[in-house]
Write a structure and sequence with these properties.
By secondary structure, the protein is an alpha+beta fold. The chain has three domains: about 1-95 and about 335-340, Rossmann fold; about 120-190, no CATH class; about 195-320, 2-Layer Sandwich (D-amino Acid Aminotransferase, Chain A, domain 1). It has eleven helices and 13 strands. Strands 8, 9, 10, 11, 12 and 13 form a six-stranded antiparallel β-sheet that branches. Strands 4-7-5-6 form a four-stranded antiparallel β-sheet, with helices on one face. Strand 12 (about 280-285) and strand 13 form a beta hairpin. The model is unreliable at about 340-350 (pLDDT under 50).
Length: about 350
């Protein structure tokens, strides 16, 4: 078996969140080699011709897609999978279309709401344009506290405590979005802040269908009074920060959480179906004081490094790292074996 691992090329001045893909790359390559696969590492840039040429020479049976961005832009996450579709190469994880829709948080929220699932109200995107109007506080749940987020970027990009906007009317929200937009890669939106607990549910494809892994909760411990309880950039990537130390993950719950622990996986699987996901994904939630679960984000390409939340959930569900990576690979191989048409590589004539 020949597997090409595609990953976003990392520049010299890359930040911690960008460097994480290299950790994933080497860990996954080691698993694939233990499985007996021939592995080629393919760094991806906007030079799609170079990527296609490398794949043509290697002729992989399948590609392991780790591309999270191109040239540091998360909004380009779908470009390499789109190219793989054009080349007829099957790959791990979500389709190009699913990656595009879930990566645009406003488009994703529109679909979540249309699918009958709860997501916090929002104002945005900012700036409006290109046929996209400024949507004003969708739905009936109005809250005085909001959080401003990047439309396209993930990994809590640009998020610090100042993204919280208190007691803002519509004019203040628009003004704050305009102020923060440059830091958030030019496009942002304001989401009603859900006071409460934070959870995530990871899902893994199996031969019998998608499997929801054990529910994880992100705790907020020893946060100073008045500090927003959010998983910001520091909480994810800066190990010495109080946010990082104060947001541990737990899989231990009290008996009174039993109903919630049943409801969250059901909603996560509904989101999986709604976005046509495959391979692996993670759905992030905030749960309010009345135990209403609101979907914050559907991550169709979550981190799968050995210390990631996804792998922690897999281990909690009885799968070690090798088994989790093999399950992701097996899903792509099942699709490759079941394809009606043969793979057509660059420069090769269809059979």
């Amino acid at each position: 078996m020949r597997v090409a691992i595609l990953f976003n090329a990392v520049g010299e001045n890359a930040k911690t969140d960008e460097l994480d893909v290299l950790e994933q790359l080497e860990a996954i390559a080691a698993v694939l080699e233990r499985l007996g696969a021939a592995v080629m590492r393919v760094p991806c840039t906007l030079d799609l011709g170079a990527i296609a040429g490398a794949l043509d020479r290697f002729k992989p049976d399948v590609a392991f897609n780790l591309v999270e961005c191109l040239e540091s832009y998360g909004r380009l996450i779908h470009v390499v999978p789109s190219m793989l579709d054009a080349l007829g190469i099957h790959y791990t994880g979500a389709s190009a279309e699913s990656l595009y829709i879930t990566s645009n948080k406003v488009l994703a929220k529109e679909r979540i709401r249309a699918g009958g699932l709860l997501t916090p109200d929002w104002t945005g995107p900012w700036p409006p344009g290109g046929g996209t109007p400024l949507v004003k506080k969708r739905g009936s749940r109005r809250r005085s506290r909001h959080i401003v987020k990047a439309v396209w970027e993930h990994a809590s990009f640009g998020m610090d405590d100042d993204v919280i906007v208190e007691n803002a009317d519509e004019a203040r929200l628009v003004a704050r979005m305009e102020e923060l937009a440059p830091r958030l890669r030019g496009e942002c939106f304001a989401e009603a802040f859900v006071e409460g607990r934070e959870f995530n549910v990871s899902i893994l494809s199996t031969a019998k269908g998608p499997r929801a892994l054990p529910v994880a909760e992100i705790l907020f411990l020893d946060f100073p009074k008045g500090k927003p309880r959010i998983v910001n950039y520091k909480a994810k990537w800066e190990e010495e920060a109080i946010e990082y130390r104060g947001t541990p993950r737990t899989f231990d719950f009290k008996p009174e959480d039993r109903e919630l622990l049943s409801e969250l996986p059901r909603i996560a699987r509904a989101a999986w179906d709604l976005f046509g996901l495959r391979g692996y994904a993670r759905v992030d939630f905030r749960v309010d004081a009345k135990n209403n679960p609101f979907i914050l984000e559907v991550n169709a390409n979550p981190c799968i490094s050995p210390d990631s939340g996804f792998i922690a959930a897999a281990q909690q569900g009885g799968l070690d790292y090798d088994a989790a990576i093999k399950a992701i690979l097996d899903d792509a191989m099942r699709r490759a074996r079941g394809a009606a048409a043969p793979r057509v590589m660059k420069g090769a004539a269809p059979q």
